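On clarity, I found the account of how folds are encoded harder to follow than it need be. An entry of this sort, consisting of the sequence and the corresponding backbone structure tokens, reads as follows:
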Amino acid sequence: MTPLSRNARVAGFLYILASIVGFLRLIYIPTHLIVHGNAAATSNNIVMHDLLFRLGIVSNVLGGVLVIFYTLALYRLLKEVDRGLAALMVILGCLMQTPIFFVNTANDVAALLFARGGEFLSVFDKPQRDAFALLFLNLHYRLDIANMMFAGLWLLHAGFGVRSLIASFLALRFVALGLDLMLFHWQISPLAWQYDRRLLGDLLRNVPVFGGILVVATLYARADVFMLSKMASLAAVGFYTAAYRLFAISQVIPKSFNTSIYPVLSNLFIQSPESYRRVKALSIRYILVGLLPIAAGIHGLAEPIMQLLFGREFVVAAPVLKVVIWTLVPYGVTKVLASSLFASDRQVVDLKVNLMGVAVNVTLNLVLIPRFGSLGCAWATLISIVFFLACQCVYLRGEMLSVLRQAEMARPAPPL
């Protein structure tokens, strides 16, 4: 057997083994233990099948370890063909994905703790603990979806083109839609396709607000690059875009967290206003605990990160990355507050804040880009998101003080 054949067999064996191990947590447990939309039933299933859920946690850890080994095995196999592409495969297939496996392990452990309860969780009643358990399980699911994003990046860089990336994205969205519809039909309520004039009227009345939020938020996210391309050199655009990509990838964490807490906040706003405020406060605390170390770590390692991902010529963009990555922290808090606005039927406030945020962002870019180039654009992005957060706090001033007090951001988490 040649060394090439041996390396290929080792890589294939590890890949198949990782797929077998992943079946338990990715497919079996979600379909047998998790009842989507029903926190109490999900928690009861976890408690009743405690050993199975713990095996799922172990399989998730083992799957993350196997991802490391089979990616390295593939690198050893492919490095003689194209070392650059092989290194990129290690980044997208291992360095980006493996941390998500271990974050999801923490999500599952947290879900198990909330489902089982405990003395240190006695401050929460049973429905609140059940809601938190389902929240962490939903976050696990969203991070699994985010993990699939790196497969699309690999397709694009490997030369398959934008069409293949769009096709893979559409296929993934339709598959996810089909699975969501089946799970809803089987585990929550049978789907009945019928015309409801009253519901249609409510939806149509909200179209201008939600449509306006979508348009304004899109302008907010794209104005910086567009203005930089018109007011600075192409090199400045390239440096800013390279640094912004890392911030955009990091946004997966607050976006996933936000998607998970929204149904919890919506439910609690109607059933228990006090629990609604407490969950919002804890969400702010947890998002800060998660995002501050990420921003600080990327800030400290900006130069080697830019060199590793984009090459030596992009090291000059490290100062831009050091500024723009701190946008992640206020951005995470704004996502939590936006979820609370939607959950409490105050989306008009979110539209107003987005409009003011766009105005400030455009103004800052007009002032800072001509003088500082891509670094000025980064500062405009950071300052405008801080202004965005300040506007949210002004509109929510009647409840923000109690929310921040309950968040207890300076107090360490209780020992497990």
